[in-house]
Amino acid sequence: MTAPSRPPAVSKTLYRWQRAPLAEHLHALMPQWAGQALDISSQDLASNASFVNYVRHHRFTDPCTGQPVEVVEKSIRKVALLGSQEARFHREAGMLAGSTQFRYPACLGVIETPWESLIFSEFVRGKPPRMQAIARQLALGIAELEQLSHAHLQAQPLAKAPLLWSMDFFRPWFLLRPRFNFARCMPGLAQLGREDARFASLAQRFEAFIPLTRQLAREARRSPRCFSHMDYLRKNLFVDKGQLHLIDWSEVKVGRVGFDGGAYLGSLFRRKDMAMYLAAQDDFINAYREALPPHFATEQALRNMRYVFLLTALFHCLRPETLDEYRERERMPLLREKYDYLLGLVATDATSL
What pLDDT, on the 0 to 100 scale, is given for residue 3? Predict the structure, then answer.
C-alpha cells in the first residue's frame, strides 16, 4: 500500500466541464507534481456496482521522492448530472480520521464532470478474510464507524440538509431496489411449494414478514443517523498485519445505527451453513453490544440490525436464482433449514436475531 508523499490539494473536489487525460487529473489533485512527467501503467479491476464505468489501478513513480505510488481510479456515471453518493461521501473530509478499528484508504480527491464522478484513492494490499472469522473485529469497527459518522452528521450546517436527505436510506430511489423488496419473490416460493411438498404453504407464512419489516422501518426512521457502508463482502475487506481495511463505498447511505450489522449478518446468512452462521452471529452481537457507545439505545440498534438483516436475508433466500442454485447443488434441505430459522424470527422478541 503506497500513497503520495504529500497531502492533496486543499479542496478534495475539483469541477471540470470536459474530460481530461489521467496525468492532468493527477497534477490537479497533487499540485507538487505540476509540470512533472508521470510514467503511468494501468490495469482494469473487476467491478459490478451500479453506474460504475470502470475501476483502474494505476502505478507510477512520485516525481518528488522517487517512491512508487499506487492509486485506484473509479469512474461513476451520472444520471441527470447528479453526483454519486460515493463521491458525496468522500467529500466528508476528516470524518473517519480518528478510526482505530478499521483502516480506510486515503482519498486523494474527487473530480466532477457533467458526465461522471472520478474518485482517486490509495490502493490497498492485503489478504481477503474469512468473513465468519472476523465477526468480532467487524463489530468493533462498525460501532466505531457509527459513532464517528453520527457525530459528524450532527455537526453539519443546515445548508447541507438537502444533500444528506438525498442520501438517506429511506428515499424511494433506494427502497425500490430489488434487494430491499423480498415480497416480489413470493410467487416463486408459492410455485416451489406446489412442486416440492417440503415447501408447501410457506409462501403464506412468509407474508408475515411484510408487516413486520414495515414496523421495523417506521421505528428505524426515528433512530440516530450515521453513514452506513452496507456492503460487507469479502471483496471489500483486506487484512494486512492484523489490521482490517475497509474499501469500496459504492453502496454508502445515510443509514441508522445498526444497519451495517444487519447488512453483514444478512450477507453471511446467505453464504454459510447454519452452524457457522449462528456462531459468527453470536460473536458479532456480543462484541457489538459491548462496543456500542452508551448514548445509543442498544435495543433500538439491534432492532435496526434485525430490519436490514431481514431485508437482505429474505431477498437472497427467496429470489429465483437462489432456488435454482440450491436445486442444482442438491442442497434443498439446507434451504428449508434457513427458511425455518427465518420463520422463527417472526414470533421471537425483536431484539433477538
Answer: 55
pLDDT by residue (tens digit) across 237-288? 999 988 999 999 999 999 999 999 999 999 999 999 999 999 999 999 999 9
Other Cβ atoms closer than 10 A to 162: 8
Report pTM.
Answer: 0.93
Q: How far apart are CA 318 and CA 322, in angstroms?
A: 7
Measured from the Cβ of residue 204, the count of other Cβ atoms closer than 10 Å reads 12
β-partners of residue 61 are 68
What is the model's pLDDT at position 219? 97
Closest by CA to 301, choosing from 145, 104, 97, is 145
Q: How far is CA 135 from CA 263, 276, 301, 315, 339, in A?
A: 12, 11, 17, 22, 23
Q: What is the CA radius of gyration of the chain?
A: 22
Backbone angles phi, psi at 93, to 5 degrees: -60, 135
> Sign of the CA dihedral 49, 51, 54, 55?
negative
Contact (Cβ atoms closer than 8 angstroms) between residue 15 and residue 136: no
Cell of 149: 459518522
Residue reference for cell 427467496: 318
Q: Which domains are seen in the chain, by residue range?
A: 13-122 (3.30.200.20), 131-347 (3.90.1200)
Q: How far apart are CA 195 and CA 249, in angstroms?
A: 41
What pLDDT does residue 1 have?
Answer: 44
User: Is 141:287 a contact under the CB 8 Å cutoff?
Assistant: no
Tell me which of 47-51, 186-190, 197-201, 210-214 is least confident: 47-51
Residues in the chain: 353
Other Cβ atoms within 10 Å of 18 Cβ, number: 7
Beta strands in 78-173 (DSSP E): 102-103, 107-112, 116-122
